[in-house]
Structure formats: C-alpha cells, structure tokens
Amino acid sequence: MNIQWYPGHMTKAKRMMQEDMKLIDIVIELLDARIPLSSRNPDIDSLAGQKFRLVLLNKCDLADEQANARWAEWFQGQGIPAVLINARDGQGMKSITARVQEACREKIERDRRRGIINRPIRAMIAGIPNVGKSTFINSYARKACTKVGNKPGVTKGKQWIRINKQVELLDTPGILWPKFEDEQVGERLAMIGSINDEILPREDLACRLIEFLTKQYPGVLRERFEVDEGAGAVEILSQAAKNRGCLRKGMEMDYDKAAGILLEEFRSGKLGRISLEQPE
Is the pLDDT at 147 greater than 50, yes or no? Predict the structure, then answer.
C-alpha cells in the first residue's frame, strides 16, 4: 500500500518557509508523539540549517507512556531538546518559553554582549498537517493572539503572534514532503489523519492497523470491538463491522464504514494510549 499525498499548495508553503528562515532565531518542530519519526518532515532539516531547534511531542496523552519517555530521551541524544505536550489540555505548555530560551542561550548571550537586552526570541512553528498546530498556538498564546507589526513578514500576509515578552511566533502552513521513501511512513501518517482520507484505501489501512494492534497491543480490539484477535485482519474487520451494525441494504457488510470507525477510535484515543513507532 504505497500512499503519497503532496498537493500543489505545499510547494508554495515550503518556498515561503525558506524565505522566512532569515527572520527567525529558532525552529519549533511540532510532532505527533505517536509517530515522532514519521511525522518529522525531512525538509525541515535542510530548511532550518544552523538555526536553533526545539521538538514538541504533541498529543502525548494519546501515545504509549513508556514510548513517550524513550522518545524524549532519544531526541535529547540527537542534541535536540524535546518536550512532551498535550496542547489541548495544556500539559507541558508552561515549560515551553523556558525551553525556547534555553535552546537559544548562545543567541541571548551574544545579544547581551552587543548591548541588546530583552529582545524577544523569534520562533517559527513548523509541522505536518493535523499535528495540532492551531491548537498549540491558541494554547501557547492563551487565545490572545496579536499580530506584531512593523517588521518583515507582516506585509506578506504571514502572522507574527506575540506570545509574551520573551517570544514571538511565526505561524506556517502544515506541509508534507513530495515522496515517502518508506511506505510505512505514508501508512502511519494516514493512520493518524495527516493525509486526506478521501484518497485513502481505508479498508486496507484499517487491516494494517489491525495487524499492528493484534501484535503490539493484544486485547485492545477484543475489548473494544468484541472480535476474535486470533482471526486474520480481514475477518477481524468483518466481525467489527457486524458487531457495530455496519450494514448496507440487503444486510451486506459495510467494510468501509467499519474501517472508518476503527481509524476514528484509534485517532481519538478510544482504543487507549498507542504508539505506532518506537526508538530504534
């Protein structure tokens, strides 16, 4: 199942981000805690160059707790500070400004030596579609978003948001990258909802998710859908369709509807805390 999705507007968005890099001090990369590697846009590394970096593992409440701890440690080992957050309920949000300042410590010291004191750090927030960027911005800004005028970027329609006296944030569109070299990356992105559902083979995707869950999280599907996890993925989907009343006219099973229910319940956390990736 080779999933690829790169609408034309993403090319324009990438070009805009490249132009904006000269305006900012640090790139804050928002990732989905359930798939930290698959939700990392490899283009960000080349775009960011030598800019300071901070990784935020969002939706950590939906991810496996043990995996969360291992991923935070893994990123630290890569020299990139990482913070586990849940932007929806505010978990981890209070520490972000301090972590931004810590990541930009060299820049702050350089400014101080030049006599520049209390200048806000300019940060770019980057992330793939559906990773929770808007929720994060509203939570970080406490819904008091204000445009910061009289500086490059504002006149081009980009939004500078004053978070506090220490940080100004430049919002960017969610973008993917042109080609997923590993087909599992495309599958995982599709599973969390970062790829348009309308182009997806949902039944195939649901079967892949079933295969993963029965192996890595045994008992989850049996408890939620009352299915026999010893059966094959297609049979499990069929049982789930029957148990949830997913029927078409003539009492024919509606596998697409059942697949949609399974994917929605995974995405919303109704199946429990599940991580699709573990650090190597």
Answer: no
